[in-house]
Amino acid sequence: MKHYWNKKTAIVTGAASGIGAATAELLARKGMNVVMSDIQTKPLAEAASRLKDEGLNVAHKVCDVSDPDMVEALGLFAENTFGRVHLCFNNAGVAMHGEKMHEMKLPDWRWVNEVNIQSVVHAIHHILPRMIRHGERALFLNTASIGGLQVNPNWLTGAYSMTKFAVVAMSEALENELKSTQVRVAVLCPGAVATNLSNASTRPDRLGGATERPQQDFLREAIARVGVPPAYVAQRIWRAIEDAEFYILTDAAAKVTIETRHRRIEEALSRAAEYSATHINN
Ligand code: NAD
């Protein structure tokens, strides 16, 4: 069936594996031109080749999303290869689970900040303005996490959640700021997905190089056990694109934790209202 996104161009970061690979494939099968990008050279080339060999419109470019110059080059590469960018899927990210924040090493803080937060900043700076300028309907889609809406009480996800809260905040702000433009914004907040997220070998040389994070070994086991397949998430994203959803969730497992958080905030609001009623202008 013909749809708006047919023959339009998408950039997908973190496309060598997991959610990015599955979504790049689905978008290509839906008729989009897809620029697949990742920091991992060989897995990226292999993932792209599989789709190119089928005759799908796919190109690939290595990019470390924590490096602003590389993100700028990625945007230019996409335009030079396929023309205007209509969908920018800022999806690359790394885990930082299983460790208390006060025990974390500073290079790990820097790594998770730069890959999970600065990646989106770099796309906002270098790619989004070009999407606004061309004037055609477009989508700026960021991958946060269900950890961007609550802090998992069991998985020691403080640093990771902090970065994903930032991605949700940037997405909410962008949605507001872009209201008068033709660029829509959405934020993907997946629950557990069976991917390679626990892999720590992708830490860029600039940020200390490949590392081990035995603290998150449980994550590998947990997402393999309870995670949904990446292809399910890709289908979920496509449905959300068609329905113009803003918050894209993949399951409701965190419902109680999110409701508890909201209830505590509402209770704090009630206390603040009561306090201000008796202490302001009195
Ligand atoms: P994944 O590890 O399978 O895929 C992530 C990809 O990002 C990898 O191919 C990796 O090489 C790439 N990457 C890492 N650092 C990069 C960098 N500096 N520059 C460019 N590419 C880089 O994991 P995934 O689960 O598919 O992760 C995709 C996104 O989904 C991430 O943002 C992650 O935080 C988020 N997420 C995952 C889950 C889950 O349970 N798997 C849940 C919520 C959110």
What is the structure about, briefly put?
The protein is built from 9 helices and 7 strands. With 282 residues, the chain is an alpha/beta fold. The protein has a 7-stranded parallel β-sheet with strand order 3-2-1-4-5-6-7, sandwiched between helices.
Q: What's the Cα radius of gyration?
A: 19 Å
Oligomer classification: single chain
Poorly predicted ranges: none
Strand content: 5-15%
Mean pLDDT: 97
Biggest beta sheet summary = 7 strands, parallel
What is the element string, with H for helices and E for strands? EHEHEHEHHEHEHHEH
First-residue to last-residue Cα separation: 66 Å
Helical percent range? 40-55%
Determine the number of helices (DSSP H or I, runs of at least 4 residues): 9
Number of strands: 7
- Overall geometry comes to globular
* Category from helices, strands and their pairing: alpha/beta
Which ligands accompany this protein? nicotinamide-adenine-dinucleotide
Sheet with most strands: strand arrangement: 3-2-1-4-5-6-7
